[in-house]
Amino acid sequence: EQEGVLVAYSSVYGNTKAAAEQLAKKLQEKGQDVCVMDLARTDLSEAVAQAFRYSRLVLASITYNGDVFPFMHAFLHGLTERSYQNRTLGVIENGTWAPTAGRIIKSAFEKRKNITWLATTVTIKSAMNAANDAQIEAMADELMKG
What we know:
The protein is an alpha/beta fold. It contains five helices and six strands; from the N terminus they run E-H-E-H-E-E-H-E-H-E-H. The chain is globular and about 35 Å long.
C-alpha cells in the first residue's frame, strides 16, 4: 500500500469523468499522488489491484436504472469479494432526477471493516455547477488530511 488516492469512475456523457478529473487535478496541485481510472476502459483486475495499492479511494458513478453503472457495479463486487477494508473512501454521484449512486456505493461496503467515509459527498445533477466545484475542493482538502 502507498499513500495516495485512486479516483475510479464510470461516466456516460462525460460529466462524471469531468468531476473525477477535476478532483484529481486539485489533488495533484496539492502534491498528492493520484491515479485516475475509467472503469469502462480499464481491465477490472487492474482497477482492483490499484484500489488495494492506494490508501484512499474515490468512487465516482452515474445513477443508472436506479443502480450504479454496470462497470462500477462490477468494480464494487471485485472489491467487496476480496474483503476490501481499512481504507478511506469518498463518493461522487451523478443523476439527473434522483441520484442514488452514493447510497448504493456505500451499501456495498456495509459489512467491510474499518471503512471511513469522507464527510464530503459530491452530488451532481447532470452537469457540474459552482456548488459542485466547491464540493470537489472540500473533498480534495479532506483527502489531503489523511
